[in-house]
Amino acid sequence: MFSLAWMANQQTSFPELVGRNTQEAALYITAQGLTPVFVRPDQPVTLDYRTDRVRIVTDPSGNHVIQAPTVG
């Protein structure tokens, strides 16, 4: 179970990464102590919520971030 106190003190969305290269985004997320997970548009994902995971939606080629990555 995640803690609301944790969420209040941590960034949960990363809009500054939209348009960036996926490698840059992964380095940025990893530096925050989080685990980047790359997904493509319309790719099925699990519905579990994990406070250590950031999903990064990429363009179909997997080269650029197209949505603000979010914790979950």
TrEMBL record:
Annotated Pfam families: potato_inhibit
Keyword ATP-binding applies: no
Alphabetized Gene3D superfamilies for the sequence: Trypsin Inhibitor V, subunit A
InterPro entries recorded: Prot_inh_pot1, Prot_inh_pot1_sf
Top-level taxon in the UniProt lineage: Eukaryota
The keyword Oxidoreductase belongs to this UniProt entry's keyword annotation: no
Gene Ontology molecular function terms on file: serine-type endopeptidase inhibitor activity
Protein name: Uncharacterized protein
GO terms, biological process: response to wounding
Record keywords, A-Z: Protease inhibitor, Serine protease inhibitor
Family designation: Belongs to the protease inhibitor I13 (potato type I serine protease inhibitor) family.
